[in-house]
Amino acid sequence: MKKCDDIRGRLTLYLDNELQGEERATVETHLSECEACAVFFAREMKLLEAVRNSGPLHEASPELRDKVRQILSEGRRAPVAVERRGSSFTWAAGLLVLLLPVLVWYIVRYDPAASGPSSFALKAAETHLSHVRGELPLEIEAPDDPQKVSSWFANKVKFSVQLPNYQESSGQEKLYTLEGARLVAYQNDYAAYVAYRMKDRPISLVITSESVAKPSGGEQILSRGLRFHYNAIDGLKVITWSDRGLTYALVSDLEERGQKSCIVCHQGTKDQDFIEPLKPH
Amino acid sequence: MDTHGTNVGFGQAALEHIDALYGYAMTLTRNSTEAEDLVQETYLRAASAANRPNGDSNLKGWLFVIMRNAWLNQLRHRNSGPRFVDLEPDEQPIDEAQESPHVIYIRKLEREQVREAIESLPDAYREIVVLRDIEGFTYQEIATVLNCPAGTVMSRLGRARGKLRKVLSTWQTKTRIRAV
């Protein structure tokens, strides 16, 4: 009986091919001699076969496979533009404004990355500086009227700009304000420039078509299927990303505010869940 | 130069493990969107890694280690643990040419029951069953992925299978009663 207990105690190791040589032979000899243990073994084996035959539990989608193939083909040096997903452009536009507080957090945690910024990120930083210096006045001033700004861009740029009133819809405390917008030249075409202000500090959002500019360079963070690129340019912090056929660049010179800045900005909202995956690991 | 010395060679070898990695990501996150992000994050880290493993035998385990570390990093930045959502059932092709419709049907039912039983396990048990019985890692490889002693792997696996056996036998008993 003691022998049976001993053998059954090692049956898991035997079934998992973790026993070798003499130990394995001992178990096999006992199973050939003991009917009770052989029955026990057969039952365990049946369970394991059922479990092992149940796999694979999941398969990667063709879209994911393509994205990974792109990551691997570009190797260690290059970034990857993640395809858009989601159900409406409004969601994507909401993301823009959601990222304003992320920028504050980013300032705290930014770690200079290996690759340089994209030309679009450089352009966004340059545009931000020009606006701050007063060289690029707003063509439309619409304090906290995103609908007015969105309408103003219609027929002026080759893509649809729909700015959401995120703070109002989420019910969070008003921490930043929309000031206005203008057109800026980029790649022989117009890009949309939107000016925000957060605690008296300017924040710029530049939007163009994904066919014109793709985000690249800097530290990359994945969240909800989007890839964000973080760069430091001339003392500015620039986040670029693509979604639903558009490419965005968010620029600010906000200084460090401490690690709790995310919580401060998103107090009373459900955005923590969105913000957390954006943090570099 | 090893087999993964070039991006092309490494990419081809690494891509072979995408289903396994996605399955493990689903085990960890229980959310298809998060799982896809985690898979991309894993490959991005792998592609950027200075020291890649030599030979295909180490590659899969290495990718799993990267994925688990990436997932743990995400968890550390969260206030809450993993979220739980329903998993989409996954139909797998079977070799129907050799089997009668009745056998195919029974096997499909059995496979679905086993999958459901695996999904019903507590996180740690589900993870170790997936690593051993679905992905076929050895105890030592699992110990490396989970960063724990091999003895812990064995004991946890034993408990997980015990739980799995209990769940399945309960379901099968209910099925038999319904059939009567």
Describe the model:
The complex is a heterodimer of chains A (281) and B (180). Chain A is α+β, with helices and mostly antiparallel strands and 281 residues long. Chain A is built from 11 helices and 8 strands. Chain A has an 8-stranded antiparallel β-sheet with strand order 1-2-3-4-8-7-6-5, sandwiched between helices. In chain A, α3 (21-33) crosses α4. The two termini of chain A are 54 Å apart. Mean pLDDT of chain A is 75; it is low at 76-93, 107-114, 256-270 and 277-281. Chain B is mostly helical and 180 residues long. Helix content of chain B is 72%, strand content 0%. Chain B has 8 helices and no strands. Chain B has helices spanning 7-15, 18-29, 32-48, 56-76, 101-120, 123-134, 139-146, 150-179. The radius of gyration of chain B is 18 Å and the shape is globular. The termini of chain B are far apart. Classes of the chains: A alpha+beta (281), B mainly alpha (180). At the A-B interface, α4, α5 and β5 of A face α1, α2, α3, α4 and α5 of B.
The amount of helix of chain B comes to over 70%
Q: Strand count, sense and closure of the main sheet of chain B?
A: none
Spell the H/E element sequence of chain B.
HHHHHHHH
Question: N- to C-terminal separation of chain B?
Answer: 64 Å
Terminal Cα span of chain A: 54 Å
Q: How many distinct beta strands of chain B? A: 0
Structural class of chain B: mainly alpha
Percent in strands of chain B: under 5%
Number of helices of chain A: 11
Q: In this structure, how is the largest beta sheet of chain A organized?
A: 8 strands, antiparallel
List unreliable stretches of 5+ residues of chain A.
Answer: 76-93, 107-114, 256-270, 277-281
Largest interface: A-B, 43 and 57 residues
Question: Would you tell me the overall average pLDDT of chain A?
Answer: 75
Which word captures the global form of chain B? globular
pLDDT below 50 for ≥5 consecutive residues: which ranges of chain B? 79-97
